[in-house]
Amino acid sequence: MLISAFNICLALIIIHHWFNYPDKGNMFDVLMLLFPFLLSVIFFGIGLSTLFKHRESAIVFMMFLSPIALFLSGISWPVSAMPDWLVGLSKILPGTTAVPAYLRLRTMGVGITEVKSEVLKLYFQAGSYAFLTIAYFYVRLFTGKIRKRENS
Fold this sequence. Notes:
Layout: H1 2-18, H2 27-49, H3 55-72, H4 84-90, H5 95-108, H6 116-151
Helix pairs in contact: 2-5, 2-6
Membrane topology: Multi-pass membrane protein
Transmembrane segments: 30-52, 59-79, 122-139
GO molecular function: ABC-type transporter activity
């Protein structure tokens, strides 16, 4: 979380001003959006990593998924040009919720109340991913104990 917080500060302050992007947003509002985004990305990554036997496989899968997530976020390709089923499927990824809200906060200067639904969706995603990850670890731990008893 600390490494990601450092990257967020780097992107929000240094890179944003270096490229002279429009900045009409309140920094506190932006941080209020990025906190649940960071939580949902962390829990999404942990949850995805539990599906693989080897850590390296999860990293390769995430590298494969990254450009797809970028296109689905609507920053490099308009959402209106995507099929409806693909837009619906993209709602699984935290970036598709956070990127449009972030752009509205920083470039349009809206407040946190205008992106309240996106913030709530990100908290819901973070909670869902955390629940699924904990449930998977519990099931894995429980089935491991049963196997040890059967082998004894």
